[in-house]
């Protein structure tokens, strides 16, 4: 059962939304800081110009300080409608000449530095529990007989500034919000759009006939190509499996039909015969045929169960040479009846492998069986040579079964090998099911199987086995 | 220093402290009190007080009428004790602005205040509720038609040419003792050359200074004065209705428009009724009543009649430019200590030594 892990689209939208929101929050903070700064810059100019207008009317007449606060100074500040204003004119000693009380700046040193460069000094300060923005201008009185400085302070509450900053921030927020929503919508739409190939694959799979295991034809983007590839490979395996099953059924039918027909014919003839000796001969033949058929059926069943076993049997660890030896011992009497000799060369000592020992036994049994049947030389005593060797490849062992018979014609060998490579099982002349079973088992163990004609006659069956560490 | 002036100022201060407030008690047992200190003639505003009380019968009103300067002094000394009147009303807009700028007011906001134009409110604390032209009042029985000025230039020429005729018979506010007078003079002084020539001629004919409108109107009506300069149009209109000798003219060079400004004190003991009263003053009902029964030119643009915003606007369409004094911290300029001192010093130079205002009130 597939468990539902939520929608890809929802995931994308949530993730992207989160990114957008976090990004948006940062941008909003930045926008707010910028808005504050812009508002301050703007209103600082206003404040400075009011202060300049005021300080301009400081004069010295008859060695006496004169100051006539111009209407324009406070009228300039009144441009920010609801803000309170404070101003004062103080002399060098800090005595207030006119206006409100002097509000001490935070940093006198900084103020002096600013004033030395002829610049105004701005600062924020709380007055009567309300935050004000202040500017202090310095004016040197250079008229005859006076060497004094006066300070003009102008202050204004921050309502208009804060309002402007809030307005700017609000506008930025609207823009950002719109962008976030747009971005979200975009992801929502594009995620749907880019997930469409998956839907197409789904549709194509849904529409396929159960027997149609051909590759998917849907054109998909690179990202989903792997998925399609995997599906196609899986279907390829299914196809091969199916082919194999079909071949097996055909093979089984074929293998059984002939002996059964022969059995039937013999039996029919036997019923017509009256001569007891002839009947006895026929009965013997029937018996022989029946035995042969029995062997075939056993082989077929073995094949079917082994093919199944390779899929599910858990491999175990065992000494390979012991298993080989045991099989050869079992087969030795049969070989003897056919005037064949078995020899075994073990070059790998007690190396263990991790595999299904039953499969190894079956492989060896079939190969030896095959050699017994076809590997008999035309003259003299037959020999079947079994050997275990290391190969040049690490973790790879070679199991060889060599006979000294006629071998297989080159074109047929090629045909057989090709078929093995494709994992197909076909009944090729005289080979019976044995090699097919071997091929099937070796394939199941991720090994390799090949047949090689030996120079000077004879065939070598080679099984390369992976030693899993 | 002039001893008489000192005696006068001390007398004024004493008078302001002993001035008695009028109590308009509520008929309810569980009454709330509302204390109003106002530089507004009590008889003029009385209909509005009674109408407000009919809307809020549970409120007892304590009303104290003071001149603009004593009102400010009283408020500041009360504020030191952190116990002041609830609502402060004055037409000395600059003094009101100064009190609010110095943080003595609380915010008043309601649906009604949203309809008030921007120039008539400040910081949602100060609200103008009248729109009163500042006029010239003359005695039409005594002043021949050919000697009636149309504007300040006419007046300057008249005073110069007919010095003997006008000698001692022109009156205006004493800016030293009237906050409103100071505001009006400082606004006039922005037209520097006109103001200089006008005051110079005032000085030549030995004008008389007054610290309130009512005395000035009485003097014109009695014939003691031929003409009074810078008189509040609202009081003049009321007086004119009673005394047919009186006539009003709106100076055609420009007519000042001044407002009565109300705010609620930070130290108000009865903020609830104070907010109700503010809303009442600014409401259409209150404005209509002020216009019709008190002749206090109301600000509400929807009200028609003689003493209304509409009539003043009509005046301005008839070629009399208005100079509306707006509620803004720019009004603080003439409250600058140095500037004020200088302005008053120059004023004193105009006054003849024997010309002391009478303290009758």
Overview of the structural elements:
- The complex is a heterodimer of chains A (469) and B (361).
- By secondary structure, chain A is an alpha+beta fold.
- Chain A has 3 domains: 159 residues, Beta-Lactamase, CATH 3.30.450; 102 residues; 156 residues, Histidine kinase-like ATPase, C-terminal domain (Heat Shock Protein 90, 2-Layer Sandwich), CATH 3.30.565.
- A 5-stranded antiparallel β-sheet of chain A has the order 4-3-7-6-5. A 5-stranded mixed β-sheet of chain A has the order 9-11-12-14-13.
- About 2% of the residues of chain A have low confidence.
- Chain B is of the alpha/beta class and 361 residues long.
- Chain B has 2 domains: 166 residues, Periplasmic binding protein-like II (D-Maltodextrin-Binding Protein, domain 2, 3-Layer(aba) Sandwich), CATH 3.40.190; 142 residues, 3-Layer(aba) Sandwich (D-Maltodextrin-Binding Protein, domain 2).
- In chain B, strands 1, 2, 3, 4, 5, 6, 7 and 14 form an 8-stranded mixed β-sheet that branches. In chain B, strands 8, 9, 10, 11, 12, 13 and 15 form a 7-stranded mixed β-sheet that branches.
- The model of chain B has no long low-confidence stretch (mean pLDDT 90).
- Chains A and B meet through helix 2 and strand 4 of A and helix 14 of B.
